[in-house]
Design a protein that fits this description.
59% helix; mainly alpha; 0% strand
Length: 127
């Protein structure tokens, strides 16, 4: 498991280009940008292990909550294919973040909104 997390962190570092170092304030998760900073951490960052674990846990929790509150009366926003992994979700969020990097309004939203926006774009539900 640890090797997988480290490998993901390395991939993120390669995909994301120049990044800011993770700061302790990012762990407060006031914004989607904070979450993206954690999820895009490079292995060289002194907080890389904590950041990637926090990222994966947050995304998993957000998606578990989405799945739990969706019922017969509420249309789901995200329809992940069977076999989708936590790592897949992190990659989706990071790619979405890169595509929306210049959108200050999106980056300043609560992180749960950013997670749902990214997942909904990648895995929309069919009407």
């Amino acid at each position: 498991m640890h090797k997988t997390v480290v490998a993901i962190a390395i991939v993120f570092g390669l995909l994301c280009g120049p990044l800011r170092a993770v700061e302790r304030v990012d762990f407060n998760l006031a914004t989607t940008q904070n979450l993206l900073d954690l999820c895009s951490v490079t292995q060289a960052d002194p907080l890389s292990r904590e950041a990637i674990h926090f990222c994966v846990g947050y995304i998993e929790g957000a998606m578990d909550y989405h799945d739990a509150v969706v019922g017969e009366e509420m249309k789901p926003l995200v329809c992940k294919p069977k076999g989708t992994t936590r790592n897949d979700a992190v990659l989706v969020l990071v790619a979405w973040g890169q595509a929306n990097r210049g959108n200050a309004a999106r980056m300043n939203e609560p992180p749960v909104i950013g997670v749902v926006r990214a997942m909904e774009q990648e895995w929309p539900c069919q009407p």
